[in-house]
Amino acid sequence: MDFFRMGDSEVAPFIAFLASMNREERGRLISDPSFCLFLFRLFSPSTQSLILSLIWDSTQLIRIDERIEPDISCVTLLEQLDIVLQNGVNNTKILNPIFRRGYLSGALEGSHRSSRFVPINSEKDIDKKKKKDKDVVKKSNERWECLLRFLALPSESTVQNVSSTTRDVLNHAGFTSGHGTDIEITSKGFQFLLLSPVKQIWSYMIELLKMETREGRSVKELLDVLLRMALCIHSEPENKKYEVDNSWTERQCNFVTHLRELGLIFIRKRKDGFFYLTPNLANLCLANHDDSLTKKSGSIIVETNFRVYAYTSSSLQLAILSSFTCMTYRFHDMSVGILTRDSVRKALQVGITANQIISFLKTNCHPESLSTSLPIPITVSDQIRLWEDERKRLIYQEAALYSSFESEKVSWIKYICII
Amino acid sequence: ILIRMVNVKKGLMVTCDPAMKQLLIHLDETRALGSKFIVKELDDTHIFVDKEIQEVLDNKLDDLMEAMNPENTDK
């Protein structure tokens, strides 16, 4: 699963997904201004500035031989996405004119207008609005947590809270195994639970799109709705109401219902005819590297003596935590565990990496320990990494050995060939 | 005139520290894994082994390291 290997500096998962799509479909997407605008936001700053300079100076050609290294990797990426095209002769490349037009008209219209959603003015009463906002946030978090809880602890009671679409996506993604009532979480699924919320929502969405693609359905319809919603987030104060679009196709309506189930949008009653955007949807506007912006306060304190305190009663958090800690005490609103070599090894053996454990502890840190300079004591994070290293003393590489040369006195480098 | 053919063998090249290499040689000589598996010792930190051995070797090493873990032996 290449998504999990993406470091901070690498491309957003959506861009990687886009690059894997077939050319025609990608071409149709790029012709849409709202899509261009959304895509642009996901690029790294250096790629953005490269695109901008090309957009405003349409005569400018990219001469690869005049470019420096980081620029070249940007250009290669853009070429994979068909945003930069080969210009026939003499090794020059140009910006795709369709993308240029799309981005310009999107940018001139503003992200909100190009989303073409009709906002409804919210209540005049500020107090009432505030209360409602809180409601929306709470409800949307509950919805997303239902999915995670189902994944962490598949049982009859949690199955009721997720739709069959969700179950299909999780199964196709390889996060769960088994069918019907006999569902179990896989090690891939555990890795998913350890991700930060931004990465979770992104990787869920990508898996959903992948599933649609595999079944031969076009993802354009779905992306249309999703990206336009995501564009509204940036331009407006949170939790504004929008009218439900009557021109949606049946498939798009189903997709919207699915988004509602995931807590990405909030619809009070279906016949009301409007929906709210939730902060969870805002996660989709962030590329991977913006993780730090969404810091929520968690409930975990890690001490230098490897003790872990979790001030929570959420069975989900505790289930995740107990996958790599040895739980010792459990009270109704806090639990205590110890990170031991055995408990961490157990997690490592099912394919969870040390970095995933550490980043889980970091993202779910208690505000109290966040205020110190090191939320996770260095002794603990180092030790977890050492436990991981201890398991990989040998590095394997596939190779071919060439032997019985005339002279055996050559150094081994000359007769090994790494495949 | 004797024409010698060059032999080609596919396998795995293992990179490790010198101590691990000695352990591998020991496992090879004592046939602890059922058979010999080292094809060629390249230098202090590289060794060329049979492809099939990887899983068996990994499990064996995990057991050995576990047995040597001070937390267990001190008990």
UniProtKB/TrEMBL annotation, chain A:
The keyword DNA repair applies. InterPro entries: Tfb2_C (IPR040662), TFIIH_p52/Tfb2 (IPR004598). One of its GO terms (molecular function) is ATPase activator activity. Gene3D superfamilies: 3.30.70.2610. GO terms for cellular component: transcription factor TFIIH core complex; transcription factor TFIIH holo complex. Residues 382-409 form the Transcription factor Tfb2 C-terminal domain. GO terms for biological process: nucleotide-excision repair. It comes from the Eukaryota. Keywords: DNA damage, DNA repair, Nucleus, Transcription, Transcription regulation. It is found in: Nucleus. It holds the Pfam family Tfb2_C. Its main location: nucleus. Belongs to the TFB2 family. Component of the general transcription and DNA repair factor IIH (TFIIH) core complex which is involved in general and transcription-coupled nucleotide excision repair (NER) of damaged DNA. This is General transcription factor IIH subunit 4. It comes from Pristionchus pacificus (Parasitic nematode worm).
UniProtKB/TrEMBL annotation, chain B:
The keyword Methyltransferase does not apply. SUPFAM superfamilies: TFB5-like. Its main location: nucleus. One of its GO terms (biological process) is transcription initiation at RNA polymerase II promoter. It holds the Pfam family Tfb5. It is found in: Nucleus. Keywords: DNA damage, DNA repair, Nucleus, Transcription, Transcription regulation. InterPro entries: TFB5-like_sf, TFIIH_TTDA/Tfb5. One of its GO terms (cellular component) is transcription factor TFIIH core complex. One of its GO terms (molecular function) is damaged DNA binding. In NER, TFIIH acts by opening DNA around the lesion to allow the excision of the damaged oligonucleotide and its replacement by a new DNA fragment. In transcription, TFIIH has an essential role in transcription initiation. When the pre-initiation complex (PIC) has been established, TFIIH is required for promoter opening and promoter escape. Belongs to the TFB5 family. Component of the 7-subunit TFIIH core complex. This is General transcription and DNA repair factor IIH subunit TFB5. It comes from Pristionchus pacificus (Parasitic nematode worm). The lineage of its organism: Eukaryota, Metazoa, Ecdysozoa, Nematoda, Chromadorea.
